[in-house]
Specification:
about 280 residues; alpha/beta; Metallo-beta-lactamase, Chain A; seven-stranded mixed sheet; 14 strands; about 25% strand; globular
Length: about 280
């Protein structure tokens, strides 16, 4: 059994205020706690709260392998790492990974070193304390400790990747964020999400908003539902909420989603799902 917990569900920039209390205001970060290892999907500002939990949860202890897997490297997906307290613990090891075609030649270390240059942050990447390992490969399919990991490059400025995790029992989690499908749903994403137990898919815009933001690299909630319908997924979780969408707005979107695809929900910070 795996546990999924959302620590950041916003896109673009974090927000704060009474009108954002239900869904939360931190940018993207998702914990996937498996039987043998921990995977952190993206490191937006939500990773700060995840770090606090890791310090006190024995299931997320210092001896447990932990991978940070990134969909891409825009600010809202990496900006929380300098504030991730476990990365300052010399007893811990983290593997920062980027898998997928066209990622083999990426200078992964430099991405994180740059955002922690002294012009931007007082502590360097090497000064954090924990052992940081970097894993890159141009392979689109890996087997890691009885788990199959597949990725698909999708449309987004600067490129981004969707992930499919399948364990030895056949349970499937698909993570797809920062994707612009365009005029029709990307069939590669439908195939990646085929029969998934849980599909986490972004839905930053409404269908009415989407035409104003062509080229920005995002989807509407309707497109997320269409992927879930076409792929036959069991549960859809929509995330990467727009910073201008407050709690009342998102509750209304959720009702519209569930009217069309009952097994759907909008992600909220601290929300947990097991499968």
């Amino acid at each position: 059994m795996a546990r999924i917990k959302f620590f950041g569900v916003r896109g673009s920039i974090s927000v704060f205020g009474q009108q954002y209390q239900e869904f939360g205001g931190n940018t993207t970060c998702v914990l996937v706690e498996g039987l043998r290892r921990t995977v952190i999907l993206d490191a937006g500002t939500g990773i700060r709260e995840l770090g606090k939990e890791m310090e006190h949860d024995p299931h997320l202890g210092i001896d447990r392998p932990c991978f940070l897997a990134f969909s891409h490297f825009h600010w809202d997906h990496i900006q929380g790492l300098p504030f991730f307290k476990p990365a300052y613990d010399p007893r811990r090891t983290f593997t920062i990974s980027a898998i997928g075609r066209e990622r083999g030649g990426l200078d992964l270390r430099s991405i994180f070193e740059t955002q922690m240059q002294e012009e931007y942050f007082p502590v360097s990447l090497d000064g954090m304390g924990a052992k940081l390992e970097f894993f890159q490969t141009a392979d689109d399919h890996l087997d890691v400790d009885k788990t199959s990991v597949r990725v698909v490059k999708h449309r987004h400025p600067g490129s981004a990747y969707s992930y499919r995790f399948q364990d030895s029992e056949g349970k499937v989690l698909v993570y797809c964020t920062d994707i612009e499908h365009g005029e029709s749903i990307d069939p590669r994403i439908v195939e990646l999400a085929r029969d998934a137990d849980v599909l986490i898919h972004e839905g930053q815009y409404t269908p009415e908003e989407l035409p104003r933001f062509r080229g920005w690299g995002h989807s509407s909630w309707v497109q997320a539902v269409e992927v879930a319908e076409q792929a036959g997924v069991k549960q859809l979780i929509i995330t990467h909420h727009d910073p201008d969408h407050d709690d009342a707005f998102l509750r209304d979107v959720e009702q519209q989603c569930q009217a069309r695809f009952p097994a759907s929900i909008l992600a909220r910070e601290q929300m947990e799902v097991t499968f």
